[in-house]
């Protein structure tokens, strides 16, 4: 690598839902902005799909950081957020060792949202430091403002009669808050509060995977509202929407794509709960009945039931463990739906499926990766939030953007019945409401594509601005070398310029 080429290191926490956005950012920086990129990926139980992603780019240097043993630091019932926070805290020594051992050390360190406690490492190696938040702007606003709410609000957030108010943002209803805020007595809540504080006190800026038309009020508040800015303290850069680009040859020979090739245009609803979402046996049965009663064509990525755990596949997504007999489906379901439905176990090439002309709807858990892939494919959605910040995302899709419908109950708390499911599916695929949502999501698709264009008008909403800002570090370092060689006595001035 040339010594004058900007080198960016990006830390990724475990889980497909975290690895994918890091890879998207890395690929964008490497291919569009010609930067040298190293990913420091903290790995747990790596699935074949995850391994394929980690080894799939020639533009990126990958260093795997072994996951530390945290068995003595957590309780078996601790939530995913707690586990991730502890894993990344204990992985700091491994991250430091990886950076210190590099021949050409990075100029910039980017930490994903669970890696913010590693940002002080950047100070030791004289690097700029950023947090990468692959979430909506409203999630970032809520997260960074949470330590203020923690002092102002008494009792549980879910029990509040009035919505939570964040300066300049759309108020957040108690039932929409991310999982760590559901119980203030749970350990994950304290981890989440700490995370928001770290974003604003340990970094030089925050990169958020969004664009202005998606959530303009929250983004404007983060940038221009004086009260919120006094809490956030560092610049916020909207760099999205970063999402997977469909490789036309990547799904050749895939049985799902071949099946879709035989279906009419926009006739199939794709059902998937992302890389980590799981359902109970009872809910799987109701969903199966709902799909059957709707009489619509479908592709369903199916995982075995996981009791009441909604994120049961988070650490094992894409695992090669066989799905086993489908005896948890209603008796005769496969025979009755065999000509108009296809079940694929555990994993499927989601972006390719959504962009297939036969797909006209998407039942999704509302993870941001899935939302963006749905929008960029121009496909309206059924919002079925399960965990993390997905309820917040679902509200944006249904109430504000109006590109999705959702059940009348929260799927994370109550079972969605077959009659409601078939009604939503029919409405999405055949009804006037579905047609209206399809028109709106296609307009949103145009907006998303426009935001990613590298054009002077879009500089404020594209990654190009961030790349230009951090590239200046190279120039500063060159100045430092010249000054250091010419006059040692200006050491104080050198430090000032560097900072």
UniProtKB/TrEMBL annotation:
Keyword Membrane among UniProt keywords: yes
Segments passing through the bilayer: 478-498
EC number: 2.4.1.-
CDD domains for the chain: GT1_Gtf-like
One GO MF term: UDP-glycosyltransferase activity
SUPFAM superfamilies hit by this protein: UDP-Glycosyltransferase/glycogen phosphorylase (SSF53756)
Alphabetic keyword roster: Glycosyltransferase, Membrane, Transferase, Transmembrane, Transmembrane helix
Enzyme class: transferase
InterPro entries from the UniProt entry: UDP_glucos_trans (IPR002213), UDP_glycos_trans_CS (IPR035595)
Domain of life: Eukaryota
PROSITE patterns: UDPGT
Function: May glycosylate diterpenes or flavonols in leaves.
Family: Belongs to the UDP-glycosyltransferase family.
Name of protein: Glycosyltransferase
Source organism (scientific name): Helianthus annuus (Common sunflower)
């Amino acid at each position: 690598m040339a010594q004058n080429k900007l080198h960016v290191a990006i830390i990724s926490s475990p889980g497909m839902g975290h690895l994918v956005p890091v890879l998207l950012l890395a690929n964008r920086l490497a291919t569009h902005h010609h930067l040298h990129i190293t990913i420091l990926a903290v790995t747990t139980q790596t699935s074949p799909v995850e391994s394929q992603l980690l080894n799939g780019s020639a533009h990126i240097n990958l260093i795997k950081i072994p996951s530390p043993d945290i068995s003595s630091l957590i309780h078996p019932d601790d939530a995913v957020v707690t586990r991730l926070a502890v894993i990344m805290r204990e992985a700091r020594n491994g991250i430091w060792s990886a950076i210190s051992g590099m021949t050409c050390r990075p100029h910039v360190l980017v930490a994903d949202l669970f890696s913010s406690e590693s940002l002080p490492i950047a100070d030791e190696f004289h690097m700029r430091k950023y947090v990468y938040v692959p979430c909506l702007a409203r999630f970032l606003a809520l997260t960074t403002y949470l330590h203020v709410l923690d002092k102002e609000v008494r009792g549980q957030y879910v029990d509040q009669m009035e919505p939570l108010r964040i300066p300049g943002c759309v108020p957040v209803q108690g039932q929409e808050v991310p999982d760590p805020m559901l119980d203030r007595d749970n350990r994950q809540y304290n981890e989440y509060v700490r995370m928001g504080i770290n974003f604003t006190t340990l970094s030089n800026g925050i990169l958020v995977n969004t664009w202005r038309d998606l959530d303009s009020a929250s983004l404007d508040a983060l940038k221009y509202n004086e009260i919120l800015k006094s809490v956030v303290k560092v610049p916020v850069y909207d760099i999205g929407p970063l999402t997977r680009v469909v490789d036309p040859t990547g799904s050749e020979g895939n049985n799902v794509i071949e099946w879709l090739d035989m279906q009419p245009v926009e006739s199939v609803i794709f059902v998937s709960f992302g890389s980590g979402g799981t359902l109970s046996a009872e809910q799987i049965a109701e969903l199966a009945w709902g799909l059957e009663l709707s009489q619509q064509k479908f592709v369903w990525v199916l995982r075995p039931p996981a009791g009441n755990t909604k994120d049961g596949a988070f650490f094992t997504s894409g695992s090669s463990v066989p799905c086993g007999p489908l005896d948890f489906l209603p008796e005769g379901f496969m025979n009755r739906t065999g000509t108009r439905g296809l079940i694929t176990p555990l994993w499927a090439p989601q972006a390719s499926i959504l962009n297939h002309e036969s797909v006209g709807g998407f039942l999704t858990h509302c993870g941001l990766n899935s939302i963006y892939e749905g929008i960029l494919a121009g496909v309206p959605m059924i919002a079925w939030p399960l965990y993390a910040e997905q309820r917040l995302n679902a509200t944006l899709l249904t109430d504000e953007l109006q590109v999705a419908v959702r059940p009348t109950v929260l799927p994370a708390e109550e079972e969605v019945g077959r009659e409601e499911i078939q009604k939503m599916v029919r409405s999405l695929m055949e009804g006037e409401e579905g047609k209206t949502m399809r028109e709106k999501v296609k307009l949103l698709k145009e907006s998303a594509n426009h935001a990613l264009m590298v054009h002077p008008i879009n500089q404020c909403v594209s990654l190009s601005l961030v790349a230009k800002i951090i590239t200046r570090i190279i120039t500063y370092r060159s100045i430092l070398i010249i000054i250091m060689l010419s006059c040692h006595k200006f050491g104080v001035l050198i430090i000032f310029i560097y900072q």
